[in-house]
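TonB-dependent receptor
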Amino acid sequence: MKPQLTHNKLSLFIGLALALSSGAALAQTTSNTTSPAPPKKVERLKTIMVTGSLIPQIDVETPAPVQIITAQQIRRSGFTSVSQVVRSISADNSGTIPNAFTLGFAAGASGVALRGLKADSTLVLIDGQRTAPYALDDDGRRSFTDLNSIPLNAVERIEVLKDSASSIYGSSAIGGVVNIIMYHTYHGVEASGEMGTSQQGGGTMTRANFMAGAGSLERNGHNEYIDIEYQKINPVFLSQRGFPFNTNNLSSLGGNNGIGGQAPGSGSIYGAVAPATLGVPGDLLTGQLIPGGLYQPLRPCGPGSTATTTAGTGSYCTQNFQGQYNEAAPKITRYAVDGRVTFKINDNTTGYINASLVQVQTVDQSAPAQIQNTSPVTTTSIALPPVLTNGQLNPNDPFAAQGQYALINYAFGDLPGFGSFNYVNHNMRLVGDLHGYYGAWRWNTAAVLNHTSLTENFYGFLNIAQLESDVQTGAYNFVNPASNSPATLAALSPTLASTATTDLAEFSISASRHLWRMPGGRSSIGLGASVRHDAQYEPALNPGNQALGLGNTIAIGSHNVGAVDGEFQMPLLHSLTANVSARFDDYSDYGSNFSPAAGFKWQPFKQIAFRGTFSKGFRAPSFAESVTNNANVGYITVPPLPASMIAAHHGDIYVQPYSLAIESIANPNIKPTTSTSWTLGTILQPLPNLSATIDYYQIKERNVIAGPNAGIPINAYFSGQPVPPGYSIVYDNPDPLYPNAPLRPIAVAGQYYNAYAVLTKGVDVNLHAHFNLPYGLRWISDFNATDILTWKENRGQGYLQFVGTQGPYNLSSGAGTPKWRASWSNTLTNGRWSATASIYYVSHLYMTTPDTNGGNYACDSTTLTGANLPASCTVPSFTYINLNGSYHLTHNIDLFGGIENVMNRGPGFDPLDYAALNYNPTYQQEGIIGRYFQMGVHIRI
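Predicted structure tokens:
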């Protein structure tokens, strides 16, 4: 039975929320009819709720650094999704999840990782309320909010709190908070249409928005609006991009030729076979090359392949699968409907009901399945038998007449939908909110129901049992695959389908008021309480590990969370304000947590202010990490093996970089990750139209939850030491060319554990200027940059520094930790037209992964000879420029358009990145897309 809310529980929850909300409203209404109007001494200054506080603020510059991105800034940027906007923030770093990482566990989604502390340490809110996470976890274990599931057109602003906020919001806010603020009211009708395409081909986009609203809270007591959005982005194929981003053959650069044809895992659709025997009688997975045996094509090389002969190996067909089949960016289709009804009950009470439905479909295609693979069983030495089970000679084995087996390399190019997946994610959200005043108290109640449902369909994966049967019986024709019936193909590669869900149900109440006067003004207090139910149901997509070469995840669980929090703000002087806050969370599964925080803001002069914060935070274990029987199997690319291992195999394909399976097993005794954070900054405003903020941050995480560290048992194995307790290794079959050489590890297993500490330090710089120029022109400039001074882990053997490297490599897409990220936008406008130039920068990365090779900082991108690839072992920095503009054609019509990556800057060469082919899609995806043109029209009625 799925661990989610039953209909009775849902009804009870809704009833309780409405009863409490109505009760508060009724109490307020009754008070107004039996008591005089509130006395004038009750202060009701115009305030706003700022992310990270329970107390309404007059000044948006709080002790904690908050970056605000307005709807106007979003329009001027040319970005067309919340994901693009949020992931362009300079504080977003290692662990961020791009749409292009289609090989990841959380494919089809996009996530933000402020401070580089992984996507599960950044809390994403909508109008200050939590959201249900994506149904698939990053790396099979980290819950996060999918930015693709948030409508963009109705966004009024985005507030980015760059500080730990567990004292206000609880778990998952260690790195910071992204609060998406939607329009509360809207009046009018508007529609827009937009198209875009890449100069190099692919990625064609069609986008349309419609928004309509009516009513006035002041005149009518109500306002209603609806927002409808549609977006479709076509895929970008690697065949539309140039070398070296469309091939694994890097021999012209001094690298390896990974397209092969006879090597394990690189067979062509035409196949290659060599005479063999069996290392274990009767076991077709233990084929060994007969001494002196050579490979030959199973059938003549055809279109898309090249006949190749290698001395000592034989003849075969080479085929560039990446260039023929793979995509650099998937096809994405997004629909969104978002509606809100806001109503004014009386002068003191206002409420709203917000409902939204978002559907995001992601479709991706990759290369055909290989008969040779390493998980969950190894088929790298699979051999065709000379005699079938019916006693006949095997027509697929050209050596059958001699009684010899046939080692086979082969790619199944005839399977329906080969190598592709189709994700359809539905996000349904309902929010009810009431807020107002009761005497001197400002109160708020909210109820949230959020359900996500993700349907997965995978095509082209081989059923292991059926493959073994087809090889033994000859049911599949390798020599003439065109003769295979649809029934044969469907049995060999059945569609793998699954539906994963997440649920969130929360009721919260908060209140704030002024208290006694202090030297700097009135002190204030804010109080809050909430109850929440979380549930996740992610069954195995690959139950029983029936499919060859496919990872697997089981994440099923639920819990209830109760919390109380409070904040006290003290204006100690007119120039000095301090506040303290704290929150207590109680989880039904692992226990409780207390998170305190304190902050100050001192403004000795009008032009300068100083601020700082101290806070404790935590991240609760996910269901994947803590619930018994949950586990996942994923893959990383193994860095170069030891020189002795390479020499023993004479540098053949067996010891080239390959995929290592890592099985991470849930640990019911796992503890939450905890953190201590500091910020210290200054706010400068030397001129009314020029301001700057500079903030230093330091975050230390303890008891960080980690999966098994593959480097520990593998290093022990290659050093001749026993595998450490708690780990296990699965080894590959012998190398067919050198069967007596050491075996390579193909899988590592171990439990999640509270593994290590993380320490990160850095500086944020934000500049804003606006000037009036001659001829009615106005210039607006915004600069944002983050410099990471330190990002390091301590796994018990001292800290490993990752700044400027491609570590932590086992994290998400292995994108690395660039030291600098920055953006600078400049807008020139006269009111009728505007033009914006935006520059985005990410610094270089050294291609070393100390977290996977025992703390060694040597280059991990090398050839079989040990030479660096490239010689500098560095992914160069990446800078691209976007130009966007709009023209007010008539009173009701605006034309807009833009060019992304104006200079057509390509991505840096990165053969170490396993999320894409020879480049880093996390930070340089705009490079692979290339120069991109957009244009559209906006109509107001």
